[in-house]
Amino acid sequence: MPYCSRCGIEVDEAADTCPLCAAPIQKLDGASPPPGKDTYPQRIIDPEDTYRLSKKERRRIGIELLTLAAGLSSVALFLVDLLTDARLGWSPYAVASVLLGWAVSVTPLALYGKPRTALAVIGVTVLAFMVVIDGFDGTTDWSLALGLPIAVASFVATGLTAAAMASRRIKGINLLGIAALGLAGFLVALEALIRLSRGTGMRPYWSLVAALALVPVAVFLFYLHGRVLRGADLRKIFRL
After folding, report:
1. Residue 35 clears pLDDT 80, i.e. is over it
2. Buried b / exposed e across 205-235, counting CB within 10 Å, b at 16+?
């Protein structure tokens, strides 16, 4: 019996092409399976495999679908606003929110494999969104004075906390302690920015109370990890 030279399966003697991969069959007397080929291979090559999309192609199609959805929804919002009030009233705010969601969704796909760049682009996009939303009424009251500083403070606190967590020396329950310290620092910065925008000085009050509650928690977690657990598996301790 002849064998396909491409996928190695046994075919009928009268067959001119392989029924699976359509490769031409060489008819030779006393044909034997190709070297290293069994009569029935472990994996049969499916001709439809050539039509499957790669990861890059799937990301590209995802970007196109998200863009189409954002564009259609934005046009629909504008049309509804115009038909009801004969002018643009609330729709710019809704469309700006849709575009923000589009940017946040598309950026990781477009910058796949570059997480730091993607996070930086998303951060800048969020800051620009606040300024645009605040500027629709012709002024930028809260965005420049309060919104942007708070957003930057949150980005910095999150970035520093994530960088500390990513350190090889920080493991186990220490991660919760680092998160508690990061939250305490952000709360102090938040109250200082709010007081500064109101002209009441930068001296914090309630944030210090919160920080004084979070810092001992972090210290306790560090002590618990370093002196009690000593790298023990929490899943075994809590029977998870």
Report:
1. no
2. eebeebbeebeebbeebbebbeeeeeeeeee
